[in-house]
Please model this.
Amino acid sequence: MTLLSNPWIHGLVVGTPVLLVFLAASALASWWERKFAGRMQNRLGPTIVGPFGILQPFADALKMMQKEDIVPRAADRALFNLAPVFPLALALAVLAVVPFGGSWAGDEWSSALVVADLDIGVIWVLAVSGLMVFPTWMAGWASSNKYTLLAGMRSVAQGVSYEIPLVLAAMVPVVATGELSLSGIVAWQAEHGWLVFWPPGPGLFAFVIFFMASLAEANRIPFDIPEAESELVAGVLVEYTGLKFGLFMLAEYTHTIAASVIASVLFLGGAHGPMPEIFGPMWLVLKASTLFVIIYWIRWSWYRFRSDQLMDLCWRYLVPITLVLVMITAIMRGFLPGGAS
Amino acid sequence: MGSSTSHGAAPPPPAPTRDVRPLRMRVNPFLDIDQYDPEADLMALNMGPQHPSTHGVFRIKLFIDGEVVVKAVPYPGYLHRGVEKLCEKLTFAQLVPIVDKHDYVAPMTNEQAIVRVVEEALKIEVPRRARVLRTILAELQRIASHLLWLGTFTLDIGGTIGGGASVMMYTFRERELILDLFEMLTGARFHYNTHTPGGNRHDVPVGWPERVKKVCDVIAARLPEYTAACTDNDVFDLRSRGVGVIDAATALELGLSGPNLRASGVDHDLRRDAPYHAYDEVGVNVAVATDGDCWARYIVRMAEMEESLRIVRLLIDDIPQGPITALKPVKLHTQIKVPAGQHYAAIDTPRGELGTYLIGGGAEKGAAAFRLKIRPPSLHAMAALPWILPGNTVSDVVAILGSLDPIMGEVDR
Model:
């Protein structure tokens, strides 16, 4: 117990499984998506490698390792090689502050299942996911290719714009609960009800907008214009081969998983559920998986916005709506049970 | 060369509003290159021939300001196979499998176009059974081609990893059914070689009409699914409405035809206006839209599929009895000779007016064409690109290109 109270050892002991579980989950997610998309489209998806093709991600990884590593002659070598590392690292860093379970009886919060229970967890999450535009821009710029350049520009424009509704929507739980740490928000929800239902109205809208903005941040359809493969070939990934490409792809899944996890922690009560607290992680996995399924369901049935329409949606609708939502929440807070300080 | 133009203050780039003057009064995008300021901060983006969304090997050079296209120069020709020159060597029966390959999405109607010009030249009266069968084949081919178009168009605006891919998988599922019908009739799934001057090579097999009816029922039941996936989708609406507008005058001036022309509000369809095959017996309700944008082209093609289903269902029940070809088979391959003279025949393919201009009397007194010119509808559709792309974003370039339904094999021949 004394050993675990050391933040370094605690981080190592809890962080390693979290890292491994989420990397494995990302690999599994790519198999699952292909299977899901296949079933949606009258196909079978992967069937050859392993039972139900479940080993397909590993086959893909093996294949990518064998690919020739090509760096374009005109590329900025350092940036080009550095860019693939960051998306995965940042997506995993977001998960460091997520409470995967624990006890929330009164104010006795056990932080056993958090890698680092930061007091400013929400800010950490938003800041780290805000950094995501940098690797994309690095890749887009360093490839010295016109298509990647366009994709990088789009990506920065989109990332910076959607950062604002994302932050404002995340402010609704913060204002409602008066907490900045994720475990605090979960504890508040365990006591007063999930934020998607309570405060009635703003919570639900904020959840929907947060979800939409997360889609845009994770570059998923209908907001995936930075990698719009119909016009930009493969977006910023045009010049990447082999493992670097694989890292980007893995990070995409990790990012999507992280977005679903954060949305379920902020709005759906996180690890809180009706059964004893030992089942907390199960509830979180269930909620996040549901959101994940919805993301991919949207992905395989919707079309892509144009970049100017995307900006329209953000600046003319999402930003004003979220501003109003934050204001309403702040006003309602005085009347909420447990809200007024 | 506009040498008198001062290079001091950079003139503003051309306004992205749509120019509605007649073409001869506009800046010619091919010739008047100097009209565009070389010092304007434009990026030249080469799209194709290796690009996922240029429908084969089309190449277009875009000059973009940010993401807005200022100028677009198409470079067709990467799929040139010299079909027209080849046609001067081969006998007329040998031409049929060759032209199968130039519009590789609708080979049936290609064959009919080339066969019809020979029939016109020789004044061959095609038996009614063959005419009805040709009508059915042409309309089935139209459905198959439009299904493929819908799939690739949704791919263009929805992404190969996304909703567009789903619609494409669905449309290809139905297209397969039609290809199965063709396979049952001709033995080939794609390059049928089933038409010959004077009639058809393959007669209707036992059980084929019943199967056609079944397939028609399946497709009629699934068309609403596409409507649900496209018409009812807000993003599809946003991406296609008001994008790539071609007004009626421009469309006529550029020689657009088929659904592209009808989407611009010109009520013109050779099937009704100059009936061939058995179209005069069934009558054709021509689908026309007025907007001239990608949305209108989509609506017109969807309506055409319904109309094709109606025509097929009308004809399939009583295919008349009688001979399937007017000529004795032995005469077909060797002895068709077209004497010197000019002949032209055009039919309405899924892509538009496919005309064939034939000067007879070539290769030893008429055994082959002296000159054969194919007027491909896709080429004229591609010619519209430099006029309508400026002012649109790069994303819309692929949407507009896709909405025109170009087949590069036909553009380049």
